[in-house]
Specification:
The complex is a heterodimer of chains A (156) and B (131). Chain A has seven helices and no strands. With 156 residues, chain A is mostly helical. In chain A, helix 1 packs parallel to helix 3, helix 2 packs across helix 3 and helix 3 crosses helix 6. The radius of gyration of chain A is 16 Å and the shape is globular. Chain B is 86% helix and 0% strand. Chain B is built from four helices and no strands. The N and C termini of chain B lie far apart (92 Å). The chains are: A mainly alpha (156), B mainly alpha (131). At the A-B interface, helix 1, helix 2, helix 4, helix 5 and helix 7 of A face helix 1 and helix 2 of B.
Chain lengths: 156, 131
């Protein structure tokens, strides 16, 4: 659980952009433990947890009819460049953050799982319960939209 | 798919630089507490479901009995059975009360001795057959 709490929380937060993310991440683990008999030990754990988390997040979004909000979060310090480049880096990240939140559900989830959580196509397909071809299409479409959003802002 | 790998790498770096909240100190404790609550609630649900099923079963049986058996006949049969049970219980109690305890004790001891002797004889015979 210690190993997976961070990616599950990050995924929930990227979908919800609200403080409910931690609540739903906890709920994900509770459901996973309560229904552990449904887990196939032949398969990896993270896609299974992500699939549960995704269902919970989408349920909440539908129930509240809310869309992902942009919440300002501080930039990760370890990747911040020199002070003079920091402003442009921050601007780039802000654009990317907005563009990611504006993506459609599928491409956004695929981008988060592939680029942030570094999951394989196969695991993403299992987590999102779609064929691998769909994951590739979503990734292609998502990347194109993110790159378009970043145009004008130099990639560091 | 058509993007160059270095472009994807840059995108990955940028996306990973996007900040996201870290799990709070109470994350594990909270999850554990909620898990225990969920298990307790599931057990409660199972108990209530069992009770509800039992009640439904009883109602169904009662309804079937009421429709197939005449209620008055059922009550009469039950009363007769209870009377028989009471008569037998009274009879046994009277026998126990009339016969003194010493007689019961000697009868029990005699029976035990008889059973043991039979067992010993049977064992001795089986040993003799083996030889």
């Amino acid at each position: 659980m210690l190993r997976f709490q961070r990616p599950v929380l990050r995924f929930c937060w990227r979908l919800l952009r609200s403080t409910d993310a931690e609540d739903l991440a906890q709920d994900t683990f509770v459901r996973a433990f309560v229904h552990f008999e449904r887990f196939d030990p032949e398969r990896p754990v993270l896609p299974w947890l992500i699939a549960i988390a995704r269902r919970l997040c989408l349920d909440l979004l539908r129930r509240r009819k809310m869309t992902a909000r942009i919440e300002a979060m501080p930039v990760s310090a370890q990747l911040a460049p020199s002070p003079e480049g920091e402003a442009s880096f921050r601007e780039q990240l802000a654009r990317l953050d907005r563009a990611l939140a504006d993506l459609d559900e599928g491409p956004r989830e695929a981008i988060i799982l592939f680029h942030i959580e570094e999951m394989s196509y196969r695991d993403i397909a299992a987590a999102l319960e779609v064929p691998m071809g769909t994951v590739m299409t979503w990734l292609h479409r998502g990347r194109a939209q993110l790159k378009k959003a970043l145009e004008g802002a130099p990639i560091t | 798919m058509s993007q160059r790998p270095d472009e994807n790498g840059q995108l990955t770096s940028l996306l990973q630089a996007l900040a996201a909240p870290e799990p709070s100190e109470e994350f594990l404790t909270g999850a554990r507490r909620r898990y225990l609550e969920a298990i307790a609630s599931r057990e409660r649900r199972a108990v209530f479901t069992g009770l509800a099923a039992a009640v439904v079963g009883l109602v169904v049986i009662a309804t079937l009995l009421a429709t197939t058996v005449e209620p008055a006949a059922l009550v009469a049969w039950l009363a007769e059975a209870m009377a028989d049970l009471a008569r037998w219980t009274t009879g046994v109690a009277v026998v126990f009360a009339l016969v003194p305890l010493t007689i019961w004790t000697s009868a029990a001891l005699g029976s035990t001795a008889a059973v043991l002797s039979l067992a010993l004889i049977a064992r001795a015979r089986s040993l003799a057959l083996v030889k």
